[in-house]
Specification:
Layout: E1 12-18, E2 25-26, H1 32-38, E3 43-49, H2 53-63, H3 67-74, E4 81-85, E5 88-99, E6 102-113, E7 116-123, H4 129-137, H5 139-142, H6 146-179, H7 186-206, H8 208-217, H9 229-292, H10 307-329
Parallel strand pairs: 3-7
Antiparallel strand pairs: 1-2, 1-3, 4-5, 5-6, 6-7
Helix pairs in contact: 2-3, 4-6, 6-7, 6-9, 7-9, 8-9, 9-10
Amino acid sequence: MDKTPTPQPSGVVACTHYPKNGAPEPITLASVSDVLATDTDGFVWIALYEPDETTLREVQLEFDLHDLAIEDAQVAHQRPKIEAYGETLFLAVKTAQTVDRRVKFGETHLFFNKRFLVTVRHGSSLSYSISRKRLEREPQLMSQGSAGAIYVVLDTIVDNYLPLLDDFNHQLNSLEEEVLAETFHPTTIQRLYELKLELTKLRIAASPMADIVAQLLRTRKELVTKKIQPYLRDVHDHALRLNDGIDTIREMLSAAMATNLSLVTVRQGEVVKRLGAWAALLAVPTLVASWYGMNFKFMPELESRWSYGIVIGAVALVCIVLYRSFRKSGWL
């Protein structure tokens, strides 16, 4: 008998059957209906990555999914949301990861039912193989069926945001040292602006997660069981803490930008004061020189033998008095 496995359609990363009592087993997408008909207590988790229309239509036929939900799952750039289509919930959430020291965003679309979970990844999104392994090694989660599966996915998404937040905080600390340094760097304000822009994008992507999890907790009890609710509340708490952390760093970035501009203005004022003081010192000999540069015939002081020395001494005395005054007032 030939036991060569049937190849999966394009975009199918994993297709696993989780029986109520027993070990998980990989299956083909075409056999999902037969497996679910045989095992009425288990569920199936299908993981897709940027599937084509043919694969999505096959998934739609297997689970009788709504056309609008399939259309949303096929095209990325959906806003984060949760919608109900009959007995199935459709969730669209944003994901993020660091690629080449820049934050790249992706999306995950989830079809959630008591009998199945379908995850559709687009763009920069880490694989959920870690989530599947966690589900399989924790019997208390796997016993909750597809509710346990959607918990580990949402928990993974939120946890993947936290390292990004730590990285933003580290960058902010480095920039704060540059802001308060004696030497002004023109690139500092540019880096502050770029960091705030990326943090704003992260806020837009991550902030709806708390509302989505809260709505999921209020859904039909046959989908979200009492035993899985404490786990989802923990995800909700992490999402709220994530939002608070993002808001705090954004406020600190705004303060750093304002401080940077204020310090630049103060330093420019100090430069202007010094230039003004030196200009005043140079104005004295300039005024005297221009005064005696007027070629008038009747200037009696020019006839004195000591005029040259007296003028030099007077100019020097005035300059010394001005210099000491400026030094005392902090202008020099």
